[in-house]
Design goal:
- This protein is an alpha+beta fold.
- The chain folds into three domains: 195 residues, Alpha-D-Glucose-1,6-Bisphosphate, Chain A, domain 3 (3-Layer(aba) Sandwich); 229 residues, Alpha-D-Glucose-1,6-Bisphosphate, Chain A, domain 3, CATH 3.40.120; 141 residues, TATA-Binding Protein, CATH 3.30.310.50.
- It is built from 18 helices and 25 strands.
- Strands 1-9-10-5-4-6-7-3 form an eight-stranded mixed sheet, with helices on both faces.
- Helix 10 crosses helix 13.
- This is phosphoglucomutase (alpha-D-glucose-1,6-bisphosphate-dependent).
- InterPro entries: A-D-PHexomutase_a/b/a-I, A-D-PHexomutase_a/b/a-I/II/III, A-D-PHexomutase_a/b/a-II, A-D-PHexomutase_a/b/a-III, A-D-PHexomutase_C_sf, A-D-PHexomutase_CS, Alpha-D-phosphohexomutase_SF, PGM.
């Protein structure tokens, strides 16, 4: 039994430690400043009630990006000093964000202990490495991100902090081996358990999906499959699930070795950054080598986002979650039926909620039993099995749908991803959709652009004059606002959640400043047009949306404010 003491370290506040919807994200060079991480962690402990800290069990792990191992040791020593009873760490410090949520909700220790929260070390889909991004966020006892009431308290404490507690003489724990390390401090025993990163999550997935039907699909010589982890933490689960459990060929896995710099790539599963998968699926700019697989998927750095592809066919995130909702009852054995999306929800007479960006807003709805399937356009999809979006869950959901659709014709012509999507459009209509991301824009210029858009909303006649001047093919704007969300469970209000322009024909433009970058500002422009005429649902998205795109750029004066003639990423 190793003894340790508690030290009180004097410190001073840092500017800008306000966590956003996805926690605190900064460049590594910011986090490695003396006391920077420690200040934020102590502020987090201070913001929690005493029973959620003293004697508690906490999870500390993440996506394995650069600086994670050092951060785990620092947080562990601070947890010991603040009276935490035990820390659970995924093997090698790896746990996907959805797996952390699952561990909080499902895992029971050998002594009956349950986790009451977690520090998740991730900057999600942002790049990693010494010159790139690091991040940290706190998740609560329901497995979901800390609500605004807690994150606001954390920020308040970061502005006044004068000291933090740390067990400086606690030795570093070996996180490369499964096992328990036992220590004793002034308040009694303190343990650190390193456990297998995948077991709890796989057990949960097997309770949701019919693995045998998916295995039958993957064993068919007619069905080919490809999964790209982009060197993120999904690689810690890919072989165990897709190869060992479901029988896929190991050659179907791309970039499934987790790396602290994500192999020098950008671990964001979209058509711009998942280049290798996009090329293999026949969607690259050059001719693909050989026949593309029937199904392809990718996950981001912390495995909470996903991209779904068919052979030479891209599935938009909005279509993906709607199709999962429309097919869930038939194709996914344990999927409940209490929620779906938009036109699917209306068609199936189910409840539908529109919430601001940030998965934590789904948490209250799920905890109250009001929501089962949820998604966001930025490649996030999930259900109420956990309180985070879940990339691998979405992939398994799609494989389940494909397995169900092909259960009687694996010897004949397969029902493909494209077939499923086109059938969905024929039933529900098609939402043409694209998103333009302008990354690392000057923050001042971005705020001026948003203020300009708000001011414009005072005169819809002026708005329509600009819109019609850009393209006469665009419908009239009938409403403009800043989206405000009132939580139907606790009544809390979240303001300034995006500037919306709604058109007479159901089209819409949304402008939003994203909080997921580590420096500068990211302006996101969302463009959507609904089409229910069967003769018009087969057009190319960029052609169908060209008039709306032109109207959006003129309305926002995007180039004038930002100096950008084109977006960084088009989804």
């Amino acid at each position: 039994m190793v003894l340790f003491n508690v030290s009180r370290i004097q410190t001073t506040p840092f500017d800008g430690q306000k966590p956003g919807t996805s926690g605190l994200r900064k460049k590594v060079k910011v986090f490695v400043q003396p006391h920077y991480l420690e200040n934020f962690v102590q502020a987090s402990f201070n913001a929690l009630t005493e029973q959620k800290v003293r004697g508690a069990t906490l999870v500390v792990s993440g996506d394995g990006r650069y600086y994670s191992e050092q951060a785990i040791q620092i947080i562990t020593k601070m947890a010991a000093a603040n009276g935490v009873r035990r820390i659970w760490v995924g093997l090698n410090g790896l746990l996907s964000t959805p797996a952390v949520s699952a561990v909080i909700r499902e895992r029971v220790g050998a002594d009956g202990s349950k986790a009451t929260g977690a520090f998740i070390l991730t900057a999600s889909h942002n790049p990693g490495g010494p010159n790139e991004d690091f991040g940290i966020k706190y998740n609560m006892e329901n497995g979901g991100p800390a609500p605004e009431g807690i994150t606001n308290k954390i920020y308040e404490y970061t502005t006044t902090i004068k000291e933090y507690l740390i067990a400086t003489d606690l030795p570093n724990v070996d996180i490369s081996t499964v096992g328990v390390s036992n220590f004793t401090g002034p308040e009694g025993p303190f343990d650190v358990e390193v456990f297998d990163s995948a077991s709890d999550y796989i057990k949960l997935m097997k309770s949701i999906f019919d693995f045998e039907s998916i295995r039958k699909l993957l064993s068919s010589p007619k069905f080919t499959f490809c999964f790209d982890a982009l060197h993120g933490v999904a690689g810690a689960y890919a072989k165990r699930i897709f190869v060992d459990e479901l029988g896929a060929q190991e050659s179907s896995l791309l970039n499934c070795v987790p790396k602290e710099d994500f192999g020098g790539g950008h671990p964001d599963p979209n058509l711009t950054y998942a280049k290798e998968l996009v090329a293999r699926m026949g969607l690259g700019k050059s001719e693909s080598q050989g026949e593309p697989p029937e199904f392809g998927a990718a996950a981001d750095g912390d495995a909470d986002r996903n991209m779904i592809l068919g052979k030479r066919f891209f599935v938009t995130p909005s279509d993906s979650v709607a199709i999962i909702a429309a097919n869930a009852v038939q194709a996914i054995p344990s999927m409940p039926t209490s929620a779906a999306l938009d036109v699917v929800a209306k068609h199936l007479n189910l409840k539908f909620f529109e919430v601001p960006t940030g998965w934590k807003f789904f948490g209250n709805l799920m905890d109250a039993g009001l929501c089962s399937v949820c998604g966001e356009e930025s490649f996030g999809t999930g259900s109420d099995h956990i309180r985070e979006k879940d990339g691998i869950w979405a992939v398994l959901a799609w494989l389940s749908i494909l397995a169900y659709k092909n259960k009687d014709n694996l010897e004949n012509k397969l029902v493909t991803v494209e077939d499923i999507v086109r059938q969905h459009w024929a039933t529900y209509g098609r939402h043409y959709y694209t998103r333009y991301d302008y990354e690392n824009v000057d923050a001042g210029a971005a705020k001026e652009l948003m203020a300009h858009l708000v001011k414009l909303q005072s005169s819809l006649s002026e708005v329509n004059k600009i819109v019609k001047g850009a393209s006469s093919d665009v419908s009239n704007v009938v409403h403009g606002d800043e989206f405000e969300y009132k939580d139907s469970v606790d009544g809390s209000i979240s303001s300034h959640q995006g500037i919306r322009y709604l058109f007479e024909d159901g089209s819409r433009l949304i402008f939003r400043l994203s909080g997921t970058g580590s420096e500068g500002a990211t302006i996101r422009l969302y463009i959507e047009q609904y089409e229910k005429d069967p003769s018009k649902i087969g057009r190319l998205s960029h052609e169908a949306l060209a008039p709306l795109v032109e109207a959006a750029l003129k309305l926002s004066k995007m180039q004038e404010f930002t100096g950008r003639s084109a977006p960084t990423v088009i989804t």
